[in-house]
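Running this now, will post back.
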Amino acid sequence: MAVDTKSRSWSIRPSTRSGRGPRAGRNERVSAVVIGVALTAVLIAYPHVATSSFWRNVGVLALLFGTASCAWNVLGGYTGQISFGNALFFGAGAYTTALLVRAGWSPWPTFAVGAGIAAVLGLLLGLPCFRLRSHYFAIATIAVGEIAFVIVNSTKALGASSGLQIPMKPEGLASLQFSVRDPTPYYYVALVLFSLATVVVWLLVRGKTGMYLRSIRDDEQAAAAVGVPVWRYKIVAVTVSAAITAVPGGVYAMYVLYVDPSLVFDLTVSIDIVLMTVLGGAGRLLGPLIGGWLLIILQEYTRQQFGGATAGLDLLIFGVLIVAVVVIEPGGVSELLTRFRTWLTNRFPSSRSVER
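Update: finished.
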């Protein structure tokens, strides 16, 4: 960052000074494209390699909750506002889809309606809670999420604690219902959703908006001092995060064909979303994808192997992993991979680089 002192008002603009030359920047872009293409190929081929229904189910859940984690990354990773209330938005999307599909709607427009409702909820959450900072803000988001859980759990029109069953319809993309024996179609729907969410987040954080969000995360008072409209960009972050989070909530409702408060509004949903991002790498584009796969594999594997006899074992193991990552590399697994890639580049330079 650099301060523009030539104008009457101070503003933040990208610094033109960099320790890397144009060749280094070009090499990084080429490397990013190669990694992106390879990762896309792996994700597309996954259900054809992992042929069991267990591993395909893992893929669906990893991508859906990875999308929710990607949305949280906007608020918590890039803006530094640690929220434990994103289950409110996930549940809003799930219940909106369930109610409208029960009323005869196609599921596809319900995702947009759910995103709009979640964006309004995000705005209503942000207006009072952004007056608080640090852990006070996090505690406030927990309180709001628990209030929402209690309200839904006691509202008969929403099914109360019994939840809502989504009616079965003929299989097809229009109804977004497929065979329970083969979740491959759900996997590709989740993959497209995650890809779109990643592109939206990338477009959001790569320009001036992303620079402002990161400046708020790094030092909110300094950002305000140089002219960043802190309040406005916090509201932008929470509404975008809420809207994106609601969509995987709606798809999840169509995947399980059932919603209840403990399934989509529980505090553990918010905690899972946060843990995915922190483990994978908060403030990094691929962090939610890495963390999502790690958490879902751990959860589903322990559930299959140990059943209900060891409830919470996955969280215990995951907590140990979080502590290990924070001690070794606070940037998460994605930063470890970046460091490993840099080490490989330095250890085994290309012949062209050696000649020069």
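Residues 36-266 form one domain. More later if anyone needs it.
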